[in-house]
Amino acid sequence: MSINQLMLRNLKKNLKNYYLYIFALMFSVALYFAFVTLQYDPALDETKGTIKGGAAIKAASILLVGIVTVFLLYANNIFIKRRSKEIGLFQLVGMTKSRIFRILSAENLILYYLSLAIGIFLGFSISKLILMILFKITKVDGIASLTFSGTALTQTLIVFSCIYGVIMLMNYIFIKRQSILSLFHVVSSSESRVKKLSLWEMLVGFIGIALIIAGYYVSTQLFNGNLTTMMHLFLAMIFTLGSVIIGTYLFYKGSVSTIANLIRKKKGGYLNINEVLSLSSIMFRMKSNSVLLTIITTVSGLAIGLLSLSYISYYSAEQIAKNNVPANFSFVTNEAANRFEEDLKANGIPFRETKIEVLQAVMNAEDIIGMKMEEYTQDPKAMSVSVISEKSVAGFDLAKDEMYLTGYSDIMMKFISMKDSGPIELIGNKNTLYMQYLGMKKDYPISRYFGGSPVAVVDDSVFKELKGDLNPSIQRSSSLYIGVDIKEGKDLIKANTLFNEKKYNEEAMNESRLDNTNIQKRQMGLAMFIVGFLGLTFLVTSGCILYFKQMDQSEDEKPNYTILRKLGFTQVDLLRGIQAKQAFNFGIPLVIGLMHSYFAVKSGWFLFGTELWMPMFIVMTLYTVLYSIFGILSVLYAKKVIQNAL
C-alpha cells in the first residue's frame, strides 16, 4: 500500500469523527470572510445617513479570529490524541516520526483547505444577507449588494493559513515528544478519574458554591443604596467578578462530585442503570475538565449578558425616545411649530397640538432623599427642576401645598433616590414655597430640552405665584413646550419625511420621536449585531468542543456498554442513562452560564434601557435552544456507539 493510499484510507475512516469539526471550521471561515467583506464594503460607510461601522467590524473580526483559533487548537489537540494509537502503530511498522508528521500534515491540509474554500464560498454567498440584516437592525436606508472583495479573500487566507501553521507546529511537537509506549496510553491518561472523594475535595466543592452565592448576593447590592461611593462600587464589582469565576472553577472541581457523592450515599450505593451511566460518569470525569468548563461557562455568561444588555438598549429605543420626545414632534417656539403645522395641513395630514408652559426653579429635596451617591454632583438642597401646572397634564387634582414629581429615570433613582412622601421646598427668586411631596410618577410630559431632572407638577395657583417670582438666571431661552401628534399612524412616515426635508430638525431643539428611535437603534443595533454574531460563533465552537469531549468519552466507555449489553440491558436502557448524562454535561454549564448572565444583567440593566424581562428572556431562550442541539447530537453519537457495542 502506497503512502497516498494510506492517507486516503485514513481520511475516509476518520471523516465520521471530523464532520462536526469540518462544519465548525466552515462556519467560522464563512462568518469571518463575511465580516471582513463587510469591513471593506463601501455600502457600509458611504450610504447617506448610515453608521460608521468599519472600525467596529474590524475589531469584531479580530475577536472572531481569537475565538476560532482557540477552538481549532483545542479540537486539533483532541483529535491528535484520539489518533495516538494509530501514530504508535505507524512507528512500530518502521515509519519515522518525520514521515508520520508529513502524512498527518497532508491529511489536515486537504481537510483544512477544502473546508476553507467551502467556507469562503459560503461567506461570500451570505455576505449580502448579513449586510441586509445589519441595515435592517440599524434602520439604515441602504442598498445591499453582493460584492466580492479581493482584500477580504487575501486577509482570510493569511489568517487561517497562520492558524494552520500553528496547528501543524503543535502536531509536530506532540509527535516528537511521545515515545511509542506513551502513544498507546495518551487517551487513557488524558482524563484523570477520581476513585474516591477526599474531605478536602468536598470542602473545595462547598467553598465553590459559597463563592458563587456570595458573588450573586453582592451583585444585587450594587445599586440598592448600600454602596454610596464609586470606590466601594468598583471594589464590589471586582469582588463579584472574581468570586463568581473562582467559585465556578471550584464548583466543577469539587461541588459536582460532592453533590453526586451525597446522592449516591443517600441511595446506599444501590444505583440503577440510569444513575450508573449518568451520575457516576459526571462524578468521575467533570473534575478533569474543570478549567475548560469554567472558561466555557464564564464566556457563555459574558456572551449572554452582553447580548441581553445590547438587546435591552435596542428593545427600549422606542420608550427612551418617547421619554425624550413625548409627542411625535416637539418644538419650543411658536414660530417653528406654526410653520410645521401649516406644512401638515398643506399635505392633508391631520394632527393635534399640546402646549405646556414650563418654568425653572430650584428645589430643596434634602428631606425626601432616600440615598445619594457621594460622588454625585447635584446638591439635594439646590436641585434644578422644571415646574408645570396641574392643568397642563391629565390625572392631577392637587391642593395648594401639594406637589408630585414625574419623569424620574431608573438610572437617576439608583444614584439619588426619593422617598414616597415628605416636605419639599420650591425656591423662587425672592420667596420659598413650602410643599408636601406626594410621590413619583413615571410619565414624561415635556421634552428633554427642559432638562433631565424630574418635572414638578403643582397646583395652578402655585404655578402662577411661582411665575411671578422667577429667577431669570436659571430660565431657559424658551418656556414653552409644543407637542405635535399625528392622528393617523399611516401618516407618520410622511410627516417625518416632511419634518426632515423642511430642515426643522436642524433648528434648535426641534425633535422627531421617530428620528430619536432610529438613532438609538443605529447606535445599539451595530453593537447587538456584532455581539450576536460573536456569541453565535462562541456557542458553535464551545458546543463542538463539548461534543468532541463527549464523543471521546463515548468511545472510551464502549467496553462498559459491551459488558452491560451482555448482562441483558437493552439499547433503550442504556440510552436513557446516556440522555441523563448529556443533560448533566451540557445542562450544568448552560444553567450556570444563564445564572451568571442573569445576575450580571439584573444588577445594571437600567443603565442600558427601560425594559428587562422580555429582551433577556428572548436571548436566553434562543441561546438555550441552539446550545441544546449539541447535546442532542452527543446523544445520537452515543446511540451509535451503543449499537456497535456488541
Q: Percent range for helical residues?
A: 55-70%
Shape: elongated
User: N-to-C terminal Cα separation, in Å?
Assistant: 31 Å
What is the CA-based Rg, rounded? 32 Å
**Residue-averaged pLDDT:** 80
Structural class: alpha+beta
- Main sheet strand line-up: 3-5-10-6-9-8
Estimate the strand proportion.
5-15%
Oligomeric category: single chain
Low-confidence stretches: 46-51, 188-194
Q: Quick one: biggest sheet?
A: 6 strands, mixed, barrel
- In total, the number of strands is 12
Helix tally equals 21
Q: What does this 3D model show about the protein?
A:
The chain is an alpha+beta fold. 65% of the residues lie in helices and 10% in strands. It has 21 helices and twelve strands. It has helices spanning 3-39, 42-46, 54-82, 84-92, 97-137, 150-177, 180-183, 186-189, 199-220, 230-266, 273-285, 290-315, 317-324, 334-346, 410-415, 460-467, 492-501, 513-556, 558-566, 571-604, 613-643, and strands at 329-331, 351-357, 359-364, 369-372, 383-389, 402-406, 416-418, 422-427, 432-441, 455-458, 480-486, 511-512. The strands form three sheets. It has a six-stranded mixed β-barrel. It has a four-stranded antiparallel beta sheet with strand order 2-11-1-12. A two-stranded antiparallel sheet has the order 4-7. A hairpin with a 4-residue loop joins β8 and β9 (432-441). It is elongated. Residues 46-51 and 188-194 have low confidence and may be disordered.
List the helices and strands and how they pair.
Layout: H1 3-39, H2 42-46, H3 54-82, H4 84-92, H5 97-137, H6 150-177, H7 180-183, H8 186-189, H9 199-220, H10 230-266, H11 273-285, H12 290-315, H13 317-324, E1 329-331, H14 334-346, E2 351-357, E3 359-364, E4 369-372, E5 383-389, E6 402-406, H15 410-415, E7 416-418, E8 422-427, E9 432-441, E10 455-458, H16 460-467, E11 480-486, H17 492-501, E12 511-512, H18 513-556, H19 558-566, H20 571-604, H21 613-643
Parallel strand pairs: 5-10, 6-9
Antiparallel strand pairs: 1-11, 1-12, 2-11, 3-5, 3-8, 4-7, 6-10, 8-9
